[in-house]
Structures are given as C-alpha cells and as structure tokens.
Design brief:
The chain is an alpha+beta fold. It contains 17 helices and 40 strands. It has 4 domains: 112 residues, PH-domain like, CATH 2.30.29; 158 residues, PH-domain like, CATH 2.30.29; 215 residues, Protein Transport Mog1p, Chain A, CATH 3.40.1000; 197 residues, no CATH class. The strands form 9 sheets. It has an 8-stranded antiparallel β-sheet. The chain is globular, with a radius of gyration of 27 Å.
Length: 706
C-alpha cells in the first residue's frame, strides 16, 4: 500500500467529485445539498497513510486522522473519497498504479477502517505530550446544539446545520470530548478521533462573544473554542499571548476583538442557539465561576437616570407586593437603583431584579449592553447575567437543562477535567413553577487557586431569564449560609407596573437591547411624510422576511432636520442586507434605499435600490477577495463598490474604490463610516452609522417607534 501520496486534483477530477456529491451522495442520504465547503479539495495535498493513522495536509490545513473517523471509502471513476467527520478527502486512482494496485489499496484501506474503527485518542497521553507551563491543555465537552451555536459565528444558519446532519456531513469531530493545546508551530485541536494543527502564521483574526472564541484563518476551517473552557476572557488573553510569542512574525491577529453582532442573531430564531449553548455548558460555566470568580470588566455604570438613582431620593422600602409568583416583585417607586443600600438591597436598572447582599463596601460593574452585573466586596463576589425571554422563544427550557443531579454531575465532571481540579456537586435541583423554570445548584471545587464554593440560581421566566452565581471568599458555615440567603433573596422585577414600567418606557429599546441602537437602513426622504405615516411603514418593514427571523422586535426610525435621510433600526433588516430586502423597503417608502451591515467585523454588506425598484443590487467588501470567496462565497461584480453612492460623494470613483478595497481596516464598519463621511452632497448624520447608545440621539433628533 502506498505510504505517501502527493497530488492536486485536476479540474476533471474535481468536477467528478462535485457531480458525485450533488447526485449520488445526496440521493444516497435522501437529503438536499445544503451548504458545504470543499476548499481543501482544491489545494495541493500531502497524505501519508499509515497503519494506525492518516496524516493529511491540504494547504495550511494539517490533520492526523484515526480510521475511526471514517465511515466508509467511496469509489468513483477516477477517485477514492472519504469523509473524516469534518471534511472530504479525495485520492486520485492515477497515483495508485494499475487497476489491480488500486483495488489492493482500497482493500487495505477498508480493512483498516473495519479493524481500527474503535481506536480513540488518549487525552491524557495527548495532554502529557502537549504539556506547557505557559498554557496548560484545556479539555471540554461539546454537544450538537453547542456546535450549531458556535457555527453561527461563521454565518451558517441553524437550518443549514440541520441539512448537514441529514447529509451526514455535520462537523461531528467537534462533538464529545475535546482538547486544545498550544504547540510550537500552532494551536493543536484534539478530538477523540483526530488532531488538527492550526499554524499561528495562518490565523488572521481573534474574535469573541460571550460564549465562543473564534480564530479565523486564511485557509482551513478556523478554530471555534468555548470561552468557558479557556477560563473566560483571562484565559483567552493568556492563550493569545502564547500564540503571539510563538508566531514567527508580529501578527496583529492575536488582539482580541469583540463581535459587533451578537451570536443570537445568527440563527433562525434570535437567541435560540445562544440559550441552548448557555444551558448545555452550564456545568462548565459554574466551574469557571468557582475557579476564576466573577469575570466582569469596565467601570461603574450609571443608570439612564443617573446613578445611584431613586424615584424619591429615599432607600428601598421594606414592604413589597408579590405579583403572580414568589420570584416576581413590584419595585417600590422610592427604590434606589444600581447601588447597595444600608440594608444591603441592590436593584438593577439595566436587568430589572432585586437582591439582598451582606454588609460591606461593594464595587459594582455593569455591562454597557445590559447583559451582566458584577458585584464584588471583601465578603465575596456575585454575578448576574441574563436577557429577554425571546432568546429561547419556542423552546422548552426544561428540555435543554440537566434533569437531575446525576446528569448535571456528568456534564460538570466533563468540564472539570480541563482544569485538573476536584469538583463536588453538593446540590442540584430543577423545578417548574407556573410560567417559571428554576434551577438551583451548589458546587465545591478544589484547584490551583484553592477551594471555591459556588452557589447559583437560574431563573427562566415569561419575560426575562437570569443566571445568578455567588462565590464567598471563605468556606465557613456562616459564609455559606449567607450565600444561600443571598440566592434566596433574588427576585425578578415586574416591569408591567410602577417605576420599572416607567423606566422600560423611557429607556430606548433598540433591536440589540436596552438603551442601544444600530441603524442598518437609509431611506432618502425626498417627499413629506408624517410621523404617523412613518410608523405605519415601519410596521410593514417589520414584516419583511429573510427566511431566518420572525416578524417581531422593536423597530424605529430616526430623523434629523439637516438631513434628508431617514435611519431605520429593525430586526427584519438585520443580517438581511440583500437586493430583495432593499427593493422591499423601497416599495414601502417609494424612495431610494441603502441597506448596510457588518458581519463579524470582517465583512461589509451594502444593498441598494432605486425608488422604482428597477435598479437594485448587493455588494460586499472585506480585507481581501479571498475572505469574500472562501468564507462567504461572494464572487465577481458583487465585490465591486456600490457606484450609486458616488452621486452623493465628494470624492472620485477611484478614491471611493480605494477605500472600499483597502485591507488595512480592522473593522469593516470603520470603512463604511469613512465612505459615508464623504457623502457630503447628501449628508448622513454620523449618529446613524455604527453602534450607539440612546444618549447619542439628543433633542436634535426625532425618533419614531413602532
């Protein structure tokens, strides 16, 4: 059997594979093609076929594959093809000699699949080999839903991932136990049946969301890592420092950049994948809380009314009204928000809950996007995360969560292995109370930083969901009883009445959450239109469907007296920057329309339509054509500058195209801001472009909501 094969598929061989896949293979699976990436088949390949393992290199992709990762070997007219639970590989028969020799090669290959199909990689041995004092190998476990959620970063929809499952071409290697280690040449991604090396020099960007770290690559699939498995942001930053030190040249790609678009908007139902991921990795997240404490950042955030704030200037009243559930309370009008009062009461103006804390000076940090509160004192640390219940709309939360202590322990010990720590699940309980689902848990872990006790609570209600984590500094009976009392004092605020309702009405509600907005549509208002007419048209805009999002969520339009442009922020237009969507908005407003959106920081989309919807198109820009073609399948004229913008600009076509194709921009939205800044013949207010807080819209603007 030939040991080492070096080759590159000819055009004829590649076309034969494509024809076989879309014909024979798809019919065999009784599915439809869906979205598949065959880029590795277009690259020169070096493949060493050994008795126990296959070493394959395609472009910058380098993998060590066990035969257990291969279901079967397919024979085509000129090729042998196999799928390794992540990608297809094709071996030309011309390399194997005569027909008899090719048949012998196939027989030997199939024998190895059968005899060695149960072999698995020893994670302990791999960890010993990859041991590094600067960055210890991290182990974690992923479920199918978590992989689907992470692939949302790559703009692969939930529906497409389901198609891949039907096809049998889902990235199954990413499911189950995993490990990542920092090798000398690159990051080593290890699964039960394969190991892939991601060279440091090949990495073009490091992006993160609340759940996932994504390392983009020039070639190959990139690397998706659960942020929790790395130890949160501190662990991710430590990993980037190691990568930067081992890269052969100064690579700015290892500077972490936050995703400008939340993970939840990548999916068919906003937030579905995000909440699935939260539920599936709850155990790992709790261990992180035990080992690393609260991972908050930033200064003390004030409420929209100033902080600390109060309705009447007094502290929270002792009495409260319970409405509908023991977990739901009405916040008195004289409540103090975003500060711990003398009696220990803390009421959040961003996430709308109340909790009672032990005495002592508390440092309070709140995320500017209202997704977490971090509270610290000498006594301990408390973190609260959460969001709107629309994140899991249509899903049964109880089906996502561990049902019992035993199931929770299984997930917890899987995550704990990554930290070489001892973990004890003291308590876990899931119960349903009317419209509420409540999970209480208590974990004790022993690791390099000593013993940590984490007491937590997850609350899923009809309007909001919360996750509470409490870590006292000392593990004595008094501290633990106090922590349990803090957990038991947690109450969600009833936002349908009282001061919280007033705050809900006064706080600006854009698509991305409280107090923020990002317009993604410009409508040229060349004819008079009242606010009532605009609101009516916004209701029509909300109904525009792109096959991914429901017709729900807030919509708004912003106007400024010195501009003829109307800026629109609407969920139906987010991630829907297409020619068809532009034509739909133009039909509704009977006006010229420009849509724009940024994907993952490295892709800018612009769509245009004239008022008559006869001239419409969509265009895209990135830091290079290879990104557009390899990552987003955008070719030809769709990469060109949207020429209709020139009639509003003070620069030439050549100058505009130079900006459009400039590869020096870190974020593509910065490129769009510069281009819009040159539209001086028909100025666009700078507050319309980018991600802003509601305070940016001062009295000079008129906001129309639907």
């Amino acid at each position: 059997m030939n040991d080492k094969l070096t080759y590159e598929l000819s055009d004829k061989e590649y076309k034969e594979f494509i024809h076989w896949f879309h014909g024979t293979y798809v019919k065999l699976r009784k599915a439809r093609p869906g979205r598949n990436d065959f880029s590795c088949l277009k690259e020169p390949v070096e493949m060493t076929v050994k008795e126990e393992i296959i070493h394959a290199r395609s472009g910058a992709c380098e993998a060590y594959i066990l035969y257990g990762a291969i279901e079967r070997l397919y024979e085509l007219e000129t090729l042998f093809v196999f799928y390794d639970m992540m990608r297809f590989w094709a071996v030309p028969k011309r390399l194997l000699g005569r027909v008899e020799e090719a048949n012998a090669w196939r027989g030997d290959f199939e024998r190895r699949i059968k005899e060695m199909g149960k072999m698995r990689i020893s994670f302990q041995e791999a960890a010993d080999i990859c041991a590094d004092s600067r960055f210890a190998p991290c182990r974690y476990i992923r479920q199918i839903e978590e992989v689907k959620a992470e692939y949302g970063l790559l703009r692969v929809s939930r529906r497409e991932m389901e198609h891949l499952r039907k096809l049998g071409t889902f990235p199954y290697r990413m499911i189950g136990e995993q490990m990542v280690a920092a090798g000398r040449r690159g990051l080593i991604e290890i699964t039960e049946r394969a190991a892939v090396i991601h060279p440091y020099e090949n990495i073009t960007g490091a992006f993160y969301t609340k759940q996932t770290l994504y390392l983009a690559e020039k070639e190959g699939d990139g690397l998706l890592l659960p942020l929790a498995a790395l130890g949160g942001m501190e662990g991710a930053e430590a990993l980037m420092r190691v990568c930067d030190a081992r890269c052969r040249f100064n690579n700015p790609a290892f500077r972490l950049k936050k995703k400008s678009v939340p993970l939840m908007v990548r999916w068919n139902m906003p937030g579905k994948a995000a909440i699935c991921c939260v539920a599936a990795v709850a155990a790992g997240a709790m261990i992180l809380g035990a080992l690393n404490g609260v991972n908050g950042s930033g200064g003390i955030k004030t409420s929209v009314f100033g902080a600390p704030m109060t309705g009447s200037g007094e502290r929270v009243a002792d009495s409260e009204e319970v409405s509908g559930s023991d977990l739901l309370v009405v916040i008195p009008d004289d409540a103090v928000f975003d500060a711990v009062t003398e009696d220990g009461t803390f009421v959040s103006s961003s996430m709308f809950y109340r909790i009672t804390l032990p005495g002592g000076g508390w440092e309070i940090s709140q995320d500017q996007y209202n997704s977490y509160d971090a509270l610290r004192s000498d006594w301990g640390q408390v973190s609260v995360t959460g969001g709107l219940s629309s994140a899991y709309e249509g899903d049964d939360v109880t089906e996502m969560l561990p049902k019992s202590k035993a199931e929770y322990i299984a997930k917890t010990y899987g995550g704990a292995a990554a930290f070489d720590s001892e973990v004890e699940v003291i308590d876990y309980n899931l119960e349903k109370s009317g419209d509420w689902t409540v999970v209480s848990r208590e974990i004790r872990s022993k690791g390099g930083e000593g013993v940590r006790h984490v007491i937590g609570l997850d609350v899923y209600g009809p309007k909001r969901y919360y996750s509470l984590s409490i870590t006292p500094e000392r593990e004595d009976d008094v501290s633990l009883q106090t922590a349990r009392a803090v957990r038991d004092s947690f109450r969600a605020a009833d936002t349908s009445v009282g001061i919280c309702r007033t705050m809900e009405e006064e706080i600006f509600h854009g698509y991305y959450g409280d107090n923020v907005y990002m317009t993604s549509c410009l409508v040229l208002m060349d004819h008079a239109m009242s606010d009532e007419e605009i609101a009516e048209k916004l209701r029509e805009v909300k109904k525009i469907r792109n096959g991914a999002y429901p017709a729900s969520g807030d919509a708004l339009a912003v106007r400024a007296p010195e501009s003829k442009w109307l800026g629109i922020d609407c969920p139906s237009l987010q991630q829907n920057c297409t020619r068809e969507a532009a034509k739909a908005v133009a039909r509704i407003f009977q006006s010229e329309v420009i849509l724009y959106d940024e994907f993952d920081g490295d892709l800018l989309m612009v769509a245009y339509s004239d008022a008559d919807q006869k001239h419409a198109y969509e265009r895209a820009a990135a830091n290079g054509p290879w990104i557009l073609e390899s990552e987003f399948q955008i070719y030809g004229k769709e990469q060109n500058f949207p020429e209709d913008l020139l009639k509003y600009m003070d620069i030439s076509k050549e100058e505009a195209e130079a900006i459009w194709k400039d590869s020096s921009y870190v974020f593509q939205m910065e490129k769009w801001v510069e281009l819009v800044g040159h539209m001086t013949k028909m100025p666009v207010p700078e507050e319309f472009v980018g991600f802003h807080g509601a305070e940016a819209l001062d009295e000079a603007f008129r906001v129309v909501k639907e």
